[in-house]
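Structure ticket #2291
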Amino acid sequence: MSRFAQRMPGSRGIVLSYLWVIVAVTLLTVVAAGATALTRPAEYRATAQVVVHADTSQNSAAIPDMGTEREVANSGIVAATAAKTLATDVTTATKGLSVTVPVDAKVLVFKYSAPTQVEALRGATAFTRAYVDYRNLRRSTRLAEVISPATVPDKPQQANLALVIGVGLVLGLMLGIGFVFVWDRVRGRLRGAADVERQTGLGVLAHVPAVREQQLPLTPANALPSPSREVFGYLVAHFSTLTTRGKGASVLVTSPSAGAGRTTVAARLAIAMAATGRDVVLIGGDLGLPDVHTLFGLPLIPGLTDVLADSAKQERAVQATAFVDLRVLPSGTPRTSGWFNAEDLELLIQGLSKRAFVVIDGPVAGSADAALLAGRTDHVLLVVDAQRGTRSAAAEAVAALSGVGGNLVGCVTTAPHPRKFLRLRRTTAVRVPPRPAEGLAPDADQVETEHVSK
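Resolution: structure written out below.
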């Protein structure tokens, strides 16, 4: 297991993610327990004690078995006699009865609860007499006798509210934690890097912390915040070991689902690699949701689609940035007819990666575009949202990419902030050429705006 997986315990992530649910369940349980205790009818409890002697009728001093004596006191024979005295049925008579045995004592303690003092006193007296009479029946010596006649307090027994609330608190916490673990399993959400490794079978190379604020466009001053600098430095070192000195390579950055922050990872990986002095080209390979050009304040057109369609030269489409040794090939003019010739794409990637390190910001892993790119790049890096991503999506992404020959080198886990992590959830304007009238070519100067979110 990687060092990043060891840093991110799944159980803690589950508890923190569903903390409000645990608190709500606990509060409801405490309130319910307290309300039950306060609304429970007051009861009087009468108490009587009976001592049990050894049976000496057989010239032996056998010690009485108090467990057996307690069962006799609760037996139907004794209950029937007591019920007759109370002028009620056996079920009603035994409802308020409890018989206990103090530790290391030959004493039975009869307790009887009832709504009134008189009923509690009569119940305790009836059961103690019924038991004593039964045990002494046809005996030359007395085996049982009352040592403390039934007594009842002046005030009814009150519920111990503090104890009830304490028990409710513990029970509520147990129910809440148990519920969120079951719910999390049903939902199938990923929980931490260790879970990502189990579901994908890939090592977690790094964990990218959330960035709450990011000023655009990216510049050398704001591109790599302190928490991310070490992470991307490690990724650069890892990819450097996979490439031959003096030669280039290509890596596709994709994710199981949208919103994992793959554009952020691709852009910062390119920036960090360029900082080492290598020539780097970042390609906007997500034609459906192009964002790379926005990060660097560059025009969307010309770009990848224009180069592949022979409507723009590669030298003009690959644009310089504020970062030394880093160039960007934006997505280009949006297309409605899908991808281009696979051989043209492969030749373009091979040509750029002869000496440069090519990073491709790709589409979602399960798409046809991702399959086309994965089979034509040297490496594939999977970006997984370790908190909101699902286990099934992660496993399916690995299967899809491996199925087309993608060389998966590992995962990068993220915990994107729902609004301000650099994954461009905000609306961005994309230049889309209007559909021309049948038989006419589109006017290069006429464009309309289409809004997309990512």
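Closing remark: Residues 190-436+445-452 form a domain with the Rossmann fold fold (CATH 3.40.50.300).
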